[in-house]
Amino acid sequence: MIDIKKIIENFSQQFKFNPIIGNKENLREFKKIIVVGMGGSHLAADLLKIAKPNLNIIIHKNYGLPAIIDNSSLIIVSSYSGDTEETISAFKTALSKGLNLAVISVGGELLKFAKKNNISYIQLPDVGLQPRMALGYSLTALLKLIGDEKELRNLAELADLLDYKNCEKEGKRLASKIINKIPIIYSSADNEALALIWKIIINESVKIPAFYNVFPELNHNEMISFDVIQSTELLSDKFHFIFLKDKSDNQKIIKRMKLCQKLYENRGFKVENLDLKGNSFLEKALNSLLIVNFCSYYLSELYGIEPEKTPMIEEFKKMMQN
User: Fold this and answer.
1) What three-state secondary structure class fits 230?
2) Global pTM value
């Protein structure tokens, strides 16, 4: 049985991974990056897009390829298992068009295709993780493919600075607060990737509904759905809000969060505030990920859930093969 707590505690070791590019000589120069991936396999690209706003990166979560691709694009097809249907579809489309193509995977059909067709690839360590738990490996591989050696070194150094003790304490506290509730994660639009990752980790590890939204957009629509009256209160009494707060956010966003929290609490909703701590976006992001992973671990214990297993997803994949 996989020891999830140990995996979380050893998270920083993933950033010591030294990716090697197979068929590196076939990797051409590029001006923009298209990362194709589903579920946990695109999370590294989501983080990189925020950490490096000047990087021309597009994330595609579907079959095939987006229409904006041209010969200046690098197509990075990311599938942790190597057997994801949508990413294999994208790989075949890019291959048929002769596009600049690379693969990130532990193996599976995708890696076989890459090796057979002399496509550049990075093989991730096959240590039996779910994609969401292998984010460190995926992020280092992505940085290697785009040639960002400086950020790779920074990431390895940053991993040693993560505050595991306080992150576990905060995660355990948060789990005790949201047990038997449906978490809704809110962040600024700038930190949307973090809110999405929180949702994904809770969905997959704890097997409970979780949702997310971003400021300021939610103030123009979703917020009104929580102006409950007696006839609708049964629809919303299970929700518990988690606000991911960043001191770097626009002051107007910070004000919106404060006022929204006040309105929600006045209507009887519980709101947990989580301050993103760190001197850079990636440091804030990695500390935040530790917290949600610990939170999900302790929630899984409280619910009696096996966090590493995703039975419905596996059942669905088998149904798609018929």
Assistant:
1) coil
2) 0.92
Instruction: Write the pLDDT tens digit of every residue in 136-184.
Output: 999 999 999 999 999 999 988 888 888 899 999 999 999 999 999 999 9
Per-residue tokens: 258: 């404060």
Contacts of 261 (CB under 8 A, 6+ apart): 241, 243, 271, 273
37 DSSP β-pair partners? 78
What pLDDT score does 284 carry? Answer: 94
Which residues of the chain are modeled with pLDDT < 70?
1
Within 13 Å and on the Cβ side, how many CA atoms surround 132? 23
Per the structure block, which two tokens stand in for 169? 């304490």
Strands 21-22 and 120-123: antiparallel
pLDDT in tens, 113-131: 999 999 999 999 988 888 8
Within a 10 A sphere around the Cβ of 321, how many other Cβ atoms? Answer: 6
DSSP state string for 258-271: HHHHHHHHHTT-EE
Q: Measuring CA to CA, which residue among 76, 21, 18 is closest to residue 44?
A: 76
Is residue 136 within 8 Å of 43, Cβ to Cβ? no
Of 209, 165, 224, 214, nearest to 193 (Cα)?
214
